[in-house]
Specification:
alpha+beta; Rhopdopsin 7-helix transmembrane proteins; Beta-Lactamase; 5 domains; 6-stranded antiparallel β-sheet; 5-stranded antiparallel β-sheet; 21 helices; about 55% helix; transmembrane helix; His_kinase_dom; transmembrane; EC 2.7.13.3
């Protein structure tokens, strides 16, 4: 820049000398003639027009409002000098537009003051971003030219007023103010030059320097002689010419700079071609888009892999940005951070693919707009692999964190290199407390060598080892648990890292095995006991039946005797006979219970009229009921119903229930036997109901248990062994039926039997009705042997 300034100074010196010589040759420095004035005005008009164009051009380049104000100055000057030139031609032909007094017609004081004010005002608003279109600038320049013509007439009219009023001091003071304004403008221009270093601004400074000299000459002209006016005009010509030289120098410098930039552009273009070739052949996806995400460039990889070959397809492409909602958000982050990296998902023709995308902003220095370079790297395989590994690791962690087994990784020497959370939870402490500790540190002493041998065997033979041992949970209380451990060798990359040992707490299983063994022994003992008991009851029943039969024979013989001793023995026969029946009943019940338990009691199924069978049994028992002052009633809803059953067992069931009802119903009570049919279930429903003492609610389930009695006291009013109802339930269930009890204390009891009608048909051996004789009389005597008159 200093070399350019020196060149300008040299050229200005040469130009000043040439200008002075030309002015002297033309006589512009002598007393003004019409010809000289025309030459002067023509020169000023041409130069002011050229400088105006130069300032407009420089403004369009720099967008500096002060330069535009200087262009306005020279546009006004062009209009002013054009009007002055026209007026000079008119005066030459005696047709002057303005006829002013001699000595005042060349003054431009008012117009120069107005121009100076415009320039100073523009400098105040210099920092505002005022952008004016070229067409608008041309309109402004033309308007300023007309305004200059107007100022020409204003100057002459104002000077005429001063001349008439003889106030010649006013122009002097105004000239002094104008010089002061020009000094201020020169200061701002020089300051701008120091800041920008522009050659053209430097020539404008020189121009204002000559303008100030011209104004000083005009000021001296008013004090001394008129020739100073013409000298000022010469300096005006120089001041107008200097910017033309400056714009030419600026142009030359710009041409040189342009050539340098062209060379740089060529170098850059070669580099760009290399980069372009790389981008065209690279496998990564590259796109250049504008701020609205419209594509400006897509490399072949982008088009090929995503199957997009035009802008329309690109606009239809859907990106799913992780952590960001839109392109705009991504672009804003890229501008703010000078680049941004995001994860994105693209749905291409082959399915969903994952990419790492980097976005970098590129700002256009001329337009200020941003474009964005998008670099996409296919990470689908890596992401899927990573997800698989993460899921596998998560599954492994979930398993190891939640499994109750004690899992440890051991090195060759048996020291822990990893332990699961269940291990630290079981034995307390932190994870790091066990790293490097031998696994046998909490093994019972008598199992230590066993565990060491198992670990060494696994490491040596590369085979899985399973065994059991005891581990100490609490060293203070020496509390132990049983564990079953599995030692497996590590394979692959971890071959030299030892083994995996998984131990499971089997303490409960051990206790369960011990308890099972104990219970099994108890069960075996119970079975042996029941077997002995059953054999005992069976043997004692048979052994008791023989002497009872002998006693019965003796009683029958005594009953047949009809001698003098009959009355003496007769009073003992009946109680003796009744107690023999009681013993026989007990023996029969024990035998039947034993047969039922051993599975040897078989039913003799035939087809019977159940209504007639139960009615006959009920009528046979009426004397026993009446003997106790009870009312026994039989009621049926069916006159006849054939059922497949064992009549002997049904008789024993009914007689047992009637015997209980008679025993536990007080005098004056009532017993009702009813038969009905349940058509839905195809059952015969037999009910034996009394209004006796009843059974407590907590004893209802127990009355059907063997050897259970409601009244267990020694002073109970009725006799019984406690196996009658148990036998009844077993006989009913042998018929595939059910029995239930409804009872309330003080209100009586009701036994309800449900016998199936056809369920036992397949066991029937005789479908005819068997005619029963008096055998049931003996059965009644046996079943009612507990009832005393």
């Amino acid at each position: 820049m200093k070399k350019g300034t020196a060149l300008i100074n040299f050229m200005l010196a040469i130009f000043t000398i040439i200008t002075l010589l030309v002015c002297r040759r033309l006589g512009l420095g002598s007393i003004a003639t019409q010809t000289n004035v025309i030459y002067l005005y023509s020169s000023l008009l041409i130069l002011s027009s050229l400088v105006c164009l130069a300032n407009v051009s420089y403004y369009l380049y720099k967008k500096d409002i002060l330069i535009l104000a200087l262009a306005v100055k020279f546009a006004i000057s062009s209009g002013l000098w054009f009007t002055a030139l026209v007026n000079s031609f008119s005066r030459r032909n005696s047709l002057a537009i303005v006829a002013a007094n001699r000595g005042f017609s060349e003054e431009t004081l008012i117009s120069n003051l107005i121009i100076a004010c415009i320039i100073l005002g523009s400098n105040i608003r210099r920092n505002s971003n005022l952008m004016i279109a070229t067409k608008r600038i041309i309109e402004i320049m033309i308007s300023c030219a007309f305004f200059g013509a107007f100022l020409y007439f204003l100057d002459y009219n104002w000077l005429e007023i001063i001349h008439v009023n003889n106030e010649l001091s006013v122009p002097f003071y105004l000239s002094f103010i104008l010089i002061l304004f020009n000094f201020i403008i020169l200061y701002f221009l020089y300051k701008d030059y120091r800041k920008s270093g522009s050659i053209y601004v430097y020539t404008i400074c020189i121009s204002y320097y000559f303008t100030i000299i011209a104004e000083i000459f005009r000021l001296n002209r008013r004090i001394f002689v008129d020739n100073f006016m013409y000298l000022s005009n010469i300096y005006d010509i120089i001041s107008y010419s200097v910017p033309v030289i400056g714009i030419c120098c600026e142009f030359i410098i710009k041409i040189k700079v342009l050539n340098m930039k062209i060379e740089e552009e060529r170098i850059y273009q070669n580099k760009l071609m290399k980069y372009y070739s790389i981008i065209e052949s690279i496998g990564n996806l590259i796109a250049i888009v504008d701020e609205n995400n419209n594509p400006e460039y897509l490399n072949p990889a982008f088009k090929r892999l995503l199957n997009f070959y035009n802008k329309k397809n690109y606009s239809e492409m859907k990106f799913d940005f992780k952590g960001s909602s839109s392109y705009k958000e991504i672009f804003d982050k890229a501008i703010k951070n000078h680049g941004v990296a995001v994860k994105t998902i693209v749905n291409d023709v082959k399915g969903k693919k994952f990419y790492d995308m980097s976005v970098y902003p590129i700002k256009n220095e001329f337009t200020g707009e941003n474009t964005f370079v998008m670099l996409l790297s296919d990470e689908t395989d890596n992401i899927l692999l990573t997800k698989h590994l993460v899921n596998s690791e998560r599954k492994f962690r979930n398993i190891t964190n939640n499994i109750s087994d004690l899992i440890c990784q051991l090195d060759k020497s048996g020291k822990i290199t990893y332990c699961s959370p269940s291990y630290t939870k079981m034995f307390g402490g932190l994870y790091q407390d066990y790293i490097g500790v031998s696994w046998i540190h909490n093994i019972r002493e008598n199992y230590i060598m066993q565990v060491i041998d198992d670990i060494n065997s696994c490491v040596k033979h590369r085979d899985t080892v399973t065994n059991q041992c005891e581990m100490i949970v609490d060293s203070l209380s020496q509390k132990c648990i049983w564990v079953e451990y599995v030692i497996s060798p590590l394979n692959g990359a971890d071959y030299n890292n030892g083994v995996i040992l998984s131990a499971r707490d089997i303490t409960r299983r051990k206790k369960a095995e011990e308890e099972k063994e104990c219970e099994s022994k108890k069960l075996q003992d119970t079975i042996e006991y029941d077997k002995v008991k059953t054999e005992f009851f069976s043997n004692i029943s048979h052994e008791l039946r023989t002497p009872i039969n002998v006693i019965f024979s003796i009683l029958q013989i005594t009953e047949l005797q009809n001698n003098s001793t009959e009355d003496y023995f007769k009073k003992y026969n009946k109680p003796l006979k009744q107690n023999c029946y009681r013993l026989l009943r007990l023996i029969n019940n024990l035998i039947d219970i034993t047969k039922i338990d051993s599975g040897f009691l078989k039913l003799t199924i035939s087809r019977y009229d159940i209504v007639s069978l139960i009615e006959n049994m009920t009528q046979s028992v009426v004397p026993y009921a009446e003997a106790k002052g009870l009312s026994l009633v039989f009621d049926t809803y069916e006159e006849e119903k054939m059922v497949y059953c064992d009549s002997d067992k049904v008789e024993r069931i009914i007689l047992n229930l009637l015997s209980n009802a008679i025993k536990f119903t007080p005098r004056g009570g009532r017993i009702i036997v009813t038969i009905s049919i349940d058509e839905e279930k195809n059952n015969v429903v037999i009910s034996v109901k009394d209004n006796g003492v009843g059974i407590p609610g907590d004893m209802i389930e127990e009355v059907f248990e063997r050897f259970r009695q409601v009244d267990k006291s020694l002073t109970r009013q009725n006799e019984g062994s406690g196996i009658g109802l148990s036998l009844v339930k077993s006989l009913v269930e042998l018929h595939k039926g059910t029995i239930e009890l409804k009872s309330k204390v003080g209100e009586g009891s009701e036994f309800i039997i449900n016998l199936p009608i056809d369920a036992n048909k397949d066991q029937c051996s005789n479908i005819n009705i068997i005619q029963r004789g008096n055998s049931n009389i003996e059965t009644i005597n046996v079943e009612f042997s507990d009832i005393y008159e």
